[in-house]
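Tokens for chain A. Residues wanted.
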């Protein structure tokens, strides 16, 4: 009734000279496409048994529908993801976990969403449950929704430098906050660096110089870059288009020979690029995953990246601990070459 009364009031205020303008309907914002759950779902994990030396990295795409309990999502879905990671960290040799931005829907506006996030993610830090002194190494990434409400105050309150300082895997950060930082881990007889860059990092020249220097100074470590926005969705084998943020980040960092993989979320869906770098003798895989427009705000789907040094490949799988289902479609299950 309030909305109806307001509409009547506004119409009554339109003068004769404005009748034509009032008759023209306002342009509606473009609606986000809604998708069903990934195609080809099965309760049985697709083939791809591990061999000695294999390890895994887990990517948690945009969790905002879970932490904000929107579009059928619930905080319990994020908890199901972290509980599955803890339960499988030994058997699957899970070496690292990364978010892909948009941990929250409303950034610093709504503290409750961060409480939901920490209730799930802080479980990864429990030495008793993980069997690791510092828990499972993980990195939080800033998305555009995490910047709402005047910046990343809440992100840094719960996932700032004070929270990660002293952890053996925490490598360092840019500036006075943790919006951009890097982590270090070792697995499969190799050393890695994961560089987490805030949303829109490519527009900050100082930040990109720092990021390039970090990769250069860690040239002995194989490098993964995670940032919220790089690609638009596209069905493979069509290379996904870059977002406006993508080219500047890729261009600033692709010259580092140790960089082999970039991960992102933001755009609803899946897509990837196998992008030539340097003189074209090597390639960098750029991979998008964002399930928030699937049924129930994502239905708990995550990305499992199984690294196999002996096979020189990365097996990418899509799984939901919430539903117990694996995706077998080409967008959710594929293999990347990983030259050794």
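Reply:
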């Amino acid at each position: 009734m309030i909305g109806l009364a307001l509409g009547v009031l506004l119409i009554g205020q339109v003068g004769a000279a404005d009748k034509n303008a009032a008759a023209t309907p306002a342009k509606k914002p473009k609606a986000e496409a809604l998708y069903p759950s990934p195609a080809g779902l099965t309760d049985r994990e697709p083939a791809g048994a591990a061999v000695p030396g294999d390890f895994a990295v887990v990517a948690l795409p945009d969790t905002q529908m879970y932490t904000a309990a929107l579009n059928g999502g619930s905080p319990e879905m994020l908890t199901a993801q972290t509980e599955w990671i803890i339960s499988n960290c030994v058997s699957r040799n899970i070496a690292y976990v990364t978010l892909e931005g948009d941990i929250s829907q409303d950034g610093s506006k709504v503290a409750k969403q961060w409480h939901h996030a920490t209730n799930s993610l802080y479980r990864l830090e429990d030495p008793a449950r993980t069997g690791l002194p510092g828990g499972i190494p993980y990195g939080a990434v800033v998305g555009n929704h995490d910047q709402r409400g005047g910046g990343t105050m809440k992100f840094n309150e719960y996932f700032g430098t004070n929270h990660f300082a002293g952890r053996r895997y925490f490598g360092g950060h840019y500036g006075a906050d943790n919006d951009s930082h890097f982590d270090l881990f070792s697995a499969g007889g190799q050393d890695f660096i994961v560089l987490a860059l805030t949303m829109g990092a490519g527009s900050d020249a100082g930040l990109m110089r720092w990021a390039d220097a970090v990769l250069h100074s860690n040239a002995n470590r194989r490098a993964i870059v995670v940032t919220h926005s790089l690609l638009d969705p596209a069905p493979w084998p069509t290379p996904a288009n870059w977002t406006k943020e993508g080219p500047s980040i890729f261009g600033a960092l692709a010259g580092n020979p140790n960089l082999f993989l970039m991960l992102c979320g933001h755009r609803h869906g899946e897509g990837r690029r196998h992008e030539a770098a340097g003189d074209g003798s090597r390639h960098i895989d750029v991979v998008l995953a964002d399930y928030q427009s699937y049924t129930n705000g994502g239905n708990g789907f995550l990305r499992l990246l199984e690294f196999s040094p002996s096979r020189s490949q990365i097996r990418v799988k899509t799984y939901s601990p919430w539903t117990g289902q694996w995706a077998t479609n080409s967008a959710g299950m594929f293999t990347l070459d990983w030259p050794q």
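The domain at 53-337 is CATH 3.60.21.10 (Purple Acid Phosphatase; chain A, domain 2). The radius of gyration is 21 Å.
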